[in-house]
Every structure is written in structure tokens, then in C-alpha cells.
Amino acid sequence: MPTARTTASKTAAAPLIGVAFMLGAMASLPFIDVFAKFLGQQNVPVLQIVWARLTIGALVALPFALSHNGPRGLIPKRPAYHSFRAGFLILATFCFFLSLKYLPIADALAIFFVQPLVVTVLSALVLKESVGRNRWAAVAVGFIGTLIIIRPGFVALNPGSLLALAAGTFLAIYFVMTRKISGQAPAMVTTFQTNVIGAAFMTLTMPLIWHHPTPAQWLMFAGLGTIATFGHYLIVRAYDYSEASLLAPLAYTEMIIATAVGWYFFGDFPDALTFLGVAVLIACALYITLTERTRATPDAIEQP
Question: To 10 degrees, the CA torsion angle through 133, 246, 23, 54?
């Protein structure tokens, strides 16, 4: 029978588990942008790319979701809430994929990272979470890092910048809504429900804009949907363990991989100031992680 000490240790370690899930998600999600940018360059409609991301994501998540509670478990208890939440994911995905037509991946993602600021504000106002000075400081410093990266963008604002900004805001609302329902269903069930609701909405638009994909494009669709599903599964798991305001600064670590893949696949090599901005983001993520590790003292995390 677990002792009080064991229970306390699991509770104390929970934020660090959430951090690990979030970092895993942030390392994988930039590859979605690589596929989306390639498909956009090949004139595949953005709505169809969003449809593929959600539809294939639902198919990937289906067997895992069924393994929990069978077919009955696939139906959300609050369908209106899940539909509303899926709508914000659709808006965020559409705006961000469209922004990649105008901007390099790293620049679009840097502007997109207004999202952690919005998450932190909403987590305090809507979720009533306690947001300490350390977390506010980490978010603020991370945002300074993004400003270092996108400094030319604010001089000559283009549609891509506005789209990336909108995407970040919509995804912040999606994340806060995810936190609101965390723990109510297994993470993969929640992931499936979001994907299938979004796919149903997007399927209604397909007869109007359908582009016949080539075999290579179908493979990119498959890669995009699979990575998106497992990336967002990790995010849902992270929110099961940690508060939204804690996880928000860690989203900046996605910039590290995004900068690398943008250079590798598209030749968008960052300059010295961009590297400085990314270094600030890394420092921000490390700071918030080490702060949580300090709070979880050795006694508190003793193994059972």
C-alpha cells in the first residue's frame, strides 16, 4: 500500500514529468511545418493540408483510443466543448500553415510564440492558476528572444506575420481549453476526439478545393498527420501533469529544432542575432526546468 511519502513524491515529481512530455512534443512538432511548407510550395491548398493533418491524425489515434474504453469511449462527454476546442485548433493550424507561404519556418514560429504569453495570462484569468514571478519572468525573457529573431519583421509587416500572430493566439486558447479538461479522459482518446471532430468539419470543404495528391504528397500527408498526432498526444499528457503557466515557457524550445530544419530543408540559415535569440530561448527553458527541479527536493522525490 503506498505511503504518504510515496504519494507526496509522485505529486512533487509530476511537474517534471509534464516538462519531459512537453519537451518531447516541441522536438517533434517542427517537422509538421517542414511537410506543410513542402506541400504549400507544390500548390496543395492549405485547407487540404489541414484536412490531411486532422484526418490522418484521427486514423493514427483510433486504435490507441479504442484500446482504452472501446467504441463508447470515443464519444466525448461534452461534444459542444470539444467541437469549440477543435475549431480553435483548425484556425491555428490553417493560419500557421498559410503563414509558411510568406515566411521561413523559424520566423513564422518566432512570431507564433506570442502563444505562451497568452497561455500564461489566460491560465491566471480563466484557470485561476497561481503564476509566480519566476514563470512570468521566463515567459517575458522568452518573448525577448523571439523579438531578437524577428526584428526585421516588425519594420516591414507582411501577411505571414499577421497570420503567425493569429495562429499563436488561437493555439493558446486551444491549450487553455485542453488544460480545462485534462484528466477527464486518456490522452490518446482526447487526441482522437479533437482530430475526428476537426476532420469532419474540414471534409465539408474538400469538394470545393480538392487537389489530387501525388504518391509523394500522400506520404507527406501521412508523415504530417502521424507526427501531429503523437506531438499533440505528448502535449495532452504534459497538461495532465503540469500547470499551463509552467509549460508555456517550454514551448520556446520548439524554436531550436525549427531553426535547424529550416536551414537543412530550405536553406534558411539563421544569422548571428537569430542564434542569439535561440540561445535566449534555450536559457529560458532551462531556467524554468531547473526552478521546478529545485522545488522538488531530494526527499520529496524519493522512490517508493
Answer: -130
